[in-house]
Description:
Number of strands: 15
Shape: globular
Structural class: alpha+beta
Largest sheet: 8 strands, mixed
Oligomer: single chain
Number of helices: 6
Distance between the termini: 23 Å
Order of helices and strands: EEEHEHEEEHEHEEEHEHEEE
Amino acid sequence: MEELFSDLVYGDRYKRTGLVAYPSPSPSEPNSVHEVTYYAVASVFTPPPKRGRGYAGHMMRLLHWVTASRVNLPGFPKAWGAPPEEVADAGGGLFSVLWSDIGEVFYRLAGPGDKGGGWEKRGAISTIWEVGTEEGDDEGWTWLTQEQLKGLWDRDTERIRNELTNMPMNNGSYEVEHPAALVACLPSDGVSAFQIPRATYIWEFSMAGGFWGVQSSSDPGTYASWSVDMRPPPPTLIVTRLSASEETFPGLIAKIKQAAGRSGIGKVEVWNLGAGLRAVAEETGGRTFTRPEGLPQFVWYGPGATENVEWVYNEKLVFLYRKSAHLC
């Protein structure tokens, strides 16, 4: 993590590893998948006496120049003065992500030049279930502790890599009709794990039994991990990673609701379920809607434009809590 700080405005920038998939020249061949660097941005904050002067917006515009390879950016606007210093072990990012609680326009306009070109919104879709008195037999399921999840996330990263290889470039559930590339953030290397200490240390909350995930014993490809959001109250169990088929999903969501109920949590939330799972979710009592906050936004620095790139596996696994951010 790198802190971006002055007495005018503050922010955090996280350097991470992601994947990008490009379509093959032939439909019969697999996609070309590459490991790349990306950056996540969080906690942008302007001290109250400094607000209303555009400092945060300008910091975000300058941030592209220390995040991306400069060969992938337009010319630095002369009106801005000198470009930021190039920083050792920074830059080289192929894309950048953030989550906005102030709408999408502010970040979309904060591009590397004078005319927009900033972070674009993708997939601000939530599905919520109310938790009742769900109980049931645990036979056929394995509850997972934080330590056990580390191995699952490592295997999950390889699963995502393999799925990207054969993922169709034309899919009715994509926001981009004919994407030139697919990008994915990964749950390994502490990215998903970060969500658990945020709950245990910041909120001083612990799940019943110390369980933060569940996996099918008969089908190891069916699993989920979660964390807890305490604000706004009441608390919500929020799924950070989920893998299931339409057939196995009802059983998995039942176990997730059971974990929530045992911990005194009345609501379960999942971000950006695939189109097939959304239909099944409705049959299990889920309600799907577009979120007004926590808007996923990303900017692409590779060939082509951001509007032509699809963000897949856009779940809560890399979400960075920034509810207290004040921008402008």
